[in-house]
Design a protein that fits this description.
It is a single chain. Helix content is 34%, strand content 24%. It contains eleven helices and 15 strands. The longest helix has 20 residues. The two termini are 30 Å apart. It folds into two domains: 141 residues, 3-Layer(aba) Sandwich (Rossmann fold), CATH 3.40.50.720; 146 residues, Dihydrodipicolinate Reductase, domain 2. Strands 14-13-12-11-7-10-9-8-15 form a nine-stranded mixed beta sheet. It has a six-stranded parallel beta sheet with strand order 3-2-1-4-5-6, sandwiched between helices. By secondary structure, it is α/β, with parallel strands linked by helices.
């Protein structure tokens, strides 16, 4: 193909970042933009080109798309992924992938069976400092992992509704949960405490604004992640500790420390969103799924950890992540049903 014809579902928020990068990519063409708010869709088409839509089905029917960016709130996915996959349209789906494990697992199976290039929007994996950390850790065993996502209040109406966002851990702090998996290994069990402490007087809010999640890896290592939107600034990071080493990612900056050695410090130079979106286009052109650092199926694994944490909060008990996937989707399901 001369250029990858790209469509967008959802034109606000993070979609703006993807639109900026895709519109500058010489191997891609912004072909269609869909948003439930017509004014938003028309405004983005005027800025980036393509045709404007307010109905996803109409866009998928009328447009010959090669790829689709899905940047809608977690409660609003419907069956967009399935319809696009069955048309052979490659997918980049923003996190979180949804709010119900079984629903997203079924989507993952349809996507897998379709053979399309697919990715979940875990953009931090594309930081070159994260790549350096992963390379350093490949032959090492972390024993303790400490992460944090500390930020300020988000007044968006759907964000403060538990049934629509899943809370901060699912919707925002999932990035740090994903790094804990990507760098530390698979998480086997979680136990979470959550509470609404600072914003309890805000109208209609029913999500916790402070969270502490403890977890156990399948390796036996342990860890915890702190999450809040009760701060006035924004800080994120993760720290992995072993017998004689420590790997610290503070924001995007990386420090590697070894006992008796001089610390190594690295700062990121690239825009991770730009790298992610460029590799997505390249993967489509080359037909190489391996260029994508987080597939949709892998994104499901991170979602499972955060949903297990929510379940732990609700029950007051530790939750095994595998328990969410007991009703495994039949590998031989009919993808065209």
């Amino acid at each position: 193909m001369d250029k990858v014809r790209v469509g967008f579902v959802g034109a606000g928020g993070i979609a703006n970042v993807h639109l900026q990068h895709v519109s500058k990519n010489e191997r891609a063409l912004v072909t269609a933009i869909c948003d439930i708010h017509e004014e938003t869709a028309l405004q983005k088409v005027k800025q980036y080109g393509g045709s404007a839509y307010t109905n996803v089905d109409e866009m998928l029917e009328k447009e010959a798309l090669d790829a689709l960016f899905i940047s809608v709130p977690p409660f609003a996915h419907g069956d967009i992924e399935e319809k696009a996959a069955k048309k052979g349209i490659h997918l980049m789906v923003e996190k979180p992938l949804g709010l119900d494990y079984q629903t997203v697992a079924k989507k993952a199976e349809v996507i897998k069976q379709s053979g399309i290039i697919n990715g979940a929007g875990y953009c931090l994996r594309y930081w070159e400092t994260v790549a350096k950390a992963k390379e350093y850790l490949k032959d090492k065993k972390p024993a303790l992992v400490r992460g944090h996502y500390l930020s300020s209040f988000v007044p968006t109406p759907w964000y403060i509704d538990w049934e629509k966002s899943g809370g901060q851990l699912v919707e925002q702090s999932t990035h740090i949960v994903d790094l804990a998996r990507y760098l530390g290994g698979e998480i086997e069990q979680v136990y979470a405490n959550m509470s609404l402490q600072v914003h309890h007087d805000f109208p209609n809010i029913n999500i916790p604004d402070v969270t502490s999640m403890n977890f156990v890896y399948d390796s036996g290592a342990v860890g915890h992640i702190d999450s809040t939107f009760a701060q006035f600034d924004h800080r994120t990071g993760i720290e992995l500790l072993g017998g004689d080493f420590r790997v610290v990612i503070d924001g995007g900056n990386l420090t590697i420390l070894e006992k008796g050695a001089k610390p190594l410090n690295f700062k990121p130079e690239l825009d991770f969103y730009g790298v992610q979106d460029s590799l997505f286009i390249e993967a489509i052109i080359k037909g190489d799924q391996n260029l994508i650092l987080s597939s949709y199926e892998d994104g499901l694994k991170t979602l499972a950890v955060t949903l297990a944490a929510n379940q732990s909060h609700e029950t007051g008990l530790p939750v095994r992540v595998a328990d969410l996937s007991k009703l495994i989707v039949n590998k031989h399901m009919e993808v065209n049903s």
